TrEMBL record:
Any Gene Ontology CC annotation: chloroplast thylakoid membrane
Provenance organism: Triticum aestivum (Wheat)
Coiled coil: none
Ranges for region Disordered: 40-59
Keywords: Chloroplast, Membrane, Photosynthesis, Photosystem II, Plastid, Thylakoid
Alphabetized HAMAP family for the sequence: PSII_Psb28
Membrane disposition: Peripheral membrane protein
GO BP, one annotated term: photosynthesis
Name listed for the protein in its UniProt record: Photosystem II reaction center Psb28 protein
Residue ranges with Low complexity bias: 48-57
Taxonomy, superkingdom: Eukaryota
Localization, UniProt: Plastid, Chloroplast thylakoid membrane
Family, similarity comment: Belongs to the Psb28 family.
Gene3D superfamilies membership: Photosystem II Psb28
Amino acid sequence: MGSSVWDTQPPKHSIHSLPLPEQANCIMPAVMKALAAASPVSAPPSPRRSVAGSSGAPCQSLHSSFRGISLRCRPRKPAHRSPPLRSSRAAAQVVAMKPAIQFIQGTDEQTIPDVRLTKSRDGTNGVAIFEFDQPSVFDSSAELGDITGFYMIDEEGMLQTVDVSAKFVNGKPARVEAKYVMRTAGDWDRFMRFMERYSQANGLQFVKN
């Protein structure tokens, strides 16, 4: 009997070197060409196009790595901008306040007074005396209370004094007198600015004795 020997050596031809039929050799070039055409690396870049949105503005067209698929972005709506803030200096308007005299703060005296002015020779001090015949404060004092002082108010601020006295006739108040003392030249100038505004608003005029 002949002996059998098992050949344990690997075959001389691997699967990679097996001969292919002629039909396979014809198909492979066509398959490789098709794969190359579908590959994103070899695909020719498609031209960028812009699509007009509803507002007529062109939209940017973003292309993915896959041929024939595009992502369209609409133009961003402009953010609402609040109007610029004006500077307080430009926006502030100086409104001329009507000069007024008050005996009770918040209530203007309607009676126009007689005013007497005296000034020292060196101009460092002066005195103003206001006399009111039947002032309107008498009518409102029953509701608003007693006289609290003498207040001269204009656009620069307020001048005040508590030197106020009332004169009575037959037991009834008839006159009110207020005295305002100016101790410096600056006080005099400030008072004269008030009197100029008050005189223009109420038709007064200065008479030098």
